[in-house]
Amino acid sequence: MKIGFMLDAYKPVINGITNFVAQYRRALEAAGHETTVFTWAAPGYTDDEPRVVRSPALLALGRTGYAASLRCSDEAVATLQSMDLVHVQHPFVSGPLALRYAGPRAIPVVYTNHTRYDLYARPYARLLSGSVRTYLRAFLPWFCERCDLVVTPAPGLAAALRAMGVRAPLTVIGNGIDLTRFDGRAGALERAAFGLAAGDRVLIYTGRLGPEKNLGFLLRAFAAAAGVEPRLRLLLLGDGPEESALRALARGLGITDRVCFAGAVPYEKVPDYLALADAWTSASVTEVHPLSALEAVAAGLPVAGLRAAGMLDVVAHGENGLLAGESEAEFVAVLLRLARDEALRARLSAGAWRRRAEFDITTTTARYVAEYERLVAGRRRA
C-alpha cells in the first residue's frame, strides 16, 4: 500500500506526534509498504529522509515551531491523490485539507486523535477556555464523522471524545515503540558528564517543557523530596516555552545544584539518557498513552506519576510504577519511596520489563495495517 501521513508539523519539530509518525513509517516500510509525509516547510530545515512533501507555509513559528497553511501545493495534492490511504495526525489544519483532497478520489482517511485538546486548552487559553470547549464540541464531531476511521491510543481518550459529542465509530490502538532500541544501552553515557554521582538517585523526565506538562508541580515536589533525601537528583530532557520560567523556579527553590536541564537531544539518543536514571517521572495530567512513559517502561525504569487517564493506561500502581493523587504531598511521598527503597525499585523495574511487550510496534503496526487494508478493499469494491 501507499500510505500518506498528513500532519501540521513534522521534523525539526520534536514531539510525540512527530515521533509517532517517524516510528510507524519505519515499521510500515519494513513490512513492505510505502509511506509519504505531507506537511509544511520549516525555515532553514532540509529533510534527511525520503518522501517528505512540504507545501509553502503561511505561518511559521520559528525553526522548530508549527508551520501550516490553508492549502497544499499542487505537487503535494497530486502526490497525495496517488495514495491508497491518508492517515491524518492533526484535526484542525491538515485534517480538513486531507478530506478536501482525498474526497474527490474516494481515498480513505484515517484520523488518530493523539491529544486531550480539552485539557491542553486550559493552560494555553485560560481566558477563552469556555469558547475553546464550545469550538471543540462543534468541530471534533463534525470532523470525525467525515473520516473513514477514528483511532484513539487509549480507552480514556475514546471516552473523552464521546463526552465531547463524537458519535463516529472509534477504534483503540495503543501507541507502539521499537523495543530493540531500549536494550543494552547502559554505559553509552557517563553520569559524571551531567554532574551526577554513582550513588545519586536519579529521576528523569523526557518531554516538552510546556505549560501543559505541569512541570512547576514536579519541581516543587522534587524540591520537597530533595530536602529530605540528599541523594536525589532530577534530569530534565527536552526544551520548550517554559524552560526559562522553570530555570527561574529552580533557582527560587534552591535546587539548581540538584536539577540538570539537559535540553533537547536527537530522538535516537533518548535510550542512552534513560539508562542514566533510576526512575522516570512526570506530573502531567494531559497525556494520552504517552510515548515517553512507554519508552521508560521499555527501558525497564519504574515510573512515578499522577493518577490520570493517560498514565493509568501505562502504569499499574505497585507493579511497574507508583501513582499519586494530584497533591504535592502525596507525590513527594512517591518520589521518596522510589529514592530510598532499592528493593521496591528492583521489583517495579522487573514489572516494567514484563509489561514492555504490550507496546511492541510490530504488534500495533499490524493492527493499523489490518484497518488500512479493510478500508482500501472497501473503497475498491465501491
What do you see in this structure?
This protein is an alpha/beta fold and 382 residues long. It has two domains: 2-176 and 360-381, Glycogen Phosphorylase B (Rossmann fold); 180-359, Glycogen Phosphorylase B (Rossmann fold, 3-Layer(aba) Sandwich). The protein has 14 helices and 15 strands. It has helices at residues 16-30, 74-80, 94-102, 117-124, 129-146, 155-163, 215-228, 243-253, 270-274, 291-298, 309-312, 328-340, 342-355, 361-381; strands at 2-6, 34-40, 52-55, 59-60, 67-68, 85-88, 109-112, 149-152, 170-172, 201-206, 232-237, 259-263, 279-281, 303-306, 321-324. Helix 1 crosses helix 14 (361-381) and helix 4 (117-124) packs antiparallel against helix 5. The mean pLDDT is 91.
Q: What characteristic shape results from the CA principal axes?
A: globular
Question: What is the total number of structural domains?
Answer: 2
Content-based structural category: alpha/beta
Low-confidence runs: none
**Helix proportion of residues, in percent?**
40-55%
CATH arch. level architecture of the largest domain = 3-Layer(aba) Sandwich
The count of helical stretches stands at 14
Strand content is 15-25%
CATH class of the largest domain: Alpha Beta
Largest sheet: 7 strands, parallel
What is the H/E string? EHEEEEHEHEHHEHEEHEHEHEHEHEHHH
Strand line-up in the sheet with most strands: 3-2-1-6-7-8-9
CATH topology of the largest domain: Rossmann fold
Amino- and carboxy-terminal Cα gap: 18 Å
Q: Report the C-alpha radius of gyration, rounded.
A: 21 Å
